[in-house]
C-alpha cells in the first residue's frame, strides 16, 4: 500500500518541482482538511528539494481563509498548523510565507446578517446572476483569497518572477459535482490550467482516491529516519508533538511546537504535553 502512495507522492512532487524550476511562484491553499493537508505536504517537500539542490527559486506562499465565524476548536487547529508550517519554513530556510485571508467588514456575518438583517447564507439560498452558488463560500473564502492572491501576484511580478500558480487539493473523486466542475475546467495532475478568472491553478492530487490522503499522511509519519529523529529529538520539557510533518525521502518537518505557539493555539486545539 505504501509503495503505491509513494509512487503517487513522487509523481506529484516531481510535477511541482518542474513548476518551481520553470520560475513560477506557487501558492498552496490550506483549509485544514486532509486533501489540502496532503497538497501542502507535497508542496513543501518540492520546495525543500529544490532548495537542497541549491537551485534558485521564487518566493512561495501558503494561503488560508478565516471566515470569522469558525468553530473555535477548528480555528485553533488551523492556526496551529499554519504556525507549524511557518516555523518549519523558517527553520529550513525555505522561501515560504503563510498568509490568512479574511472577508471584508461589509461581508462578515455580524455586519451583513445581524447588522443589516440579510438572510443567513446557506448553500441552498445562494443565487447570483440567475445561478445557484455557495454564497457563504464565495463571500467568506473565495473572494477574500482572490484579493489576497492578487496582492501577492503584484509582489511576485514586481520581483521579476513568473506568475503565481495556485496549488489546489481538488480531486475528481471527491464528489460527482466536483468531478464535473474539474472536467469543465480541464484540471489535471500534469499541467496547470487557467480558471474563469484567468489565474493559473494546478491540482497535483486530481486523480487520487479518497483513501490516498490518509495513506499519504501515514506514509509521511512512517518514513522518519534516524537522521530526522536526531534532528528533531523528543524533548518532553519544551514542546508538544503536532499533527503535521511533511516527510518523504527520509526527511521530516519539525513535529514540535514551542510553548509559545501552543499557548497561542489555546486549550481548544487539543494539543497536549508529550509527557
Explain the overall architecture:
With 275 residues, this protein is α/β, with parallel strands linked by helices. The two termini are 32 Å apart. The chain has one domain: 3-Layer(aba) Sandwich (Rossmann fold). It has helices at 2-21, 34-52, 72-92, 109-115, 135-158, 176-184, 212-222, 226-231, 259-265; strands at 24-29, 60-65, 96-101, 127-128, 131-132, 162-167, 193-194, 200-202, 239-241, 247-248, 251-252, 256-258. The protein has nine helices and twelve strands. Strand 4 (127-128) and strand 5 (131-132) form a beta hairpin.
Number of domains: 1
Task: State the separation between the terminal residues, measured CA to CA.
Answer: 32 Å
CATH topology: Rossmann fold
Shape: globular
Major β-sheet annotation: 6 strands, mixed
Task: Provide a count of the helices.
Answer: 9
Taken as a percent bin, the fraction of beta residues is 15-25%
CATH architecture: 3-Layer(aba) Sandwich
Poorly predicted runs: 224-275
Order of strands, main sheet, comes to: 3-2-1-6-8-7
What is the radius of gyration computed over CA atoms, rounded to a whole number of angstroms?
A: 19 Å
- DSSP strand tally: 12
| Structural class by sheet pairing and helices | alpha/beta
Residues in helices, as a percent range: 40-55%
Q: Helices and strands, in N-to-C order?
A: HEHEHEHEEHEHEEHHEEEEH
Rounded mean pLDDT is 78
Summarize the structure.
The chain has 275 residues and is an alpha/beta fold.
Element layout with pairings:
Layout: H1 2-21, E1 24-29, H2 34-52, E2 60-65, H3 72-92, E3 96-101, H4 109-115, E4 127-128, E5 131-132, H5 135-158, E6 162-167, H6 176-184, E7 193-194, E8 200-202, H7 212-222, H8 226-231, E9 239-241, E10 247-248, E11 251-252, E12 256-258, H9 259-265
Parallel strand pairs: 1-2, 1-6, 2-3, 6-8
Antiparallel strand pairs: 4-5, 7-8, 9-12, 10-11
